[in-house]
TrEMBL record:
Keywords: ATP-binding, Hydrolase, Nucleotide-binding. GO terms for molecular function: ATP binding; ribonucleoside triphosphate phosphatase activity. It comes from Archaeoglobus fulgidus. InterPro entries: Nuc-triphosphatase_THEP1 (IPR004948), P-loop_NTPase (IPR027417). This is Nucleoside triphosphatase. It holds the Pfam family NTPase_1.
Length: 60
């Protein structure tokens, strides 16, 4: 199964994905990635890409 989550900034897409991941990771193999904001003093300065399977991240 493949699922894509889309929507406007700030509506909770990443939060939803992380909650689903936490609920299902012990029941099945889950792979994919999320992008997390990088902030400095409250200002977005970039993003990092996080692999859900390995928890490795890389700046975008």
């Amino acid at each position: 199964m493949r699922v894509a989550v889309t929507g406007r900034p700030g509506i909770g897409k990443t939060t939803l994905c992380l909650k689903v991941y936490e609920a299902l990771k012990s029941k099945m193999k889950i792979s994919g990635f999320i992008t997390m904001e990088e902030r400095d003093k409250g200002v977005r300065v970039g993003f990092k890409l996080v692999d859900l399977a390995s928890n490795r991240s890389s700046p975008l």
